Amino acid sequence: MRRGRLLAWTRTDGRESGHTAAQRAQAALSASLAGYAGTYPQVRVHQIVAAGDPAERILDESAGAWLIVVGSRGRGGFALGSACRAVLDEATVPVLVARPRPGGRRHSRSSER
């Protein structure tokens, strides 16, 4: 891959200020991406923390993309979350829905090479 973009978001419960929520989301995003730059140096990553509807933000940020990759986990036992379904319905490029590994385990970085 020559270019890539990763977008992620964290839902908040609405009880904290926008600034505090943004700081918490930025910290969670940075922690989740720790080590990936060294493992995948060919992928350019932009960390974006923004308020608003996740599907709308993903679609806005994906302008010019060749592919959108979204997670499949929905709340309340649904196979696809509402953001994933909205992206699938509205995207103008292919969408890959990534399912979590059984047992919630993360992929081993060493086995992906």
Automatic annotation (TrEMBL):
Domain of life: Bacteria
Domain UspA: 20-99
A Pfam family it matches: Usp
Gene3D superfamilies: HUPs
Name this protein carries in UniProt: Usp family protein
Organism: Nocardia asteroides NBRC 15531
Taxonomic classification: Bacteria, Bacillati, Actinomycetota, Actinomycetes, Mycobacteriales
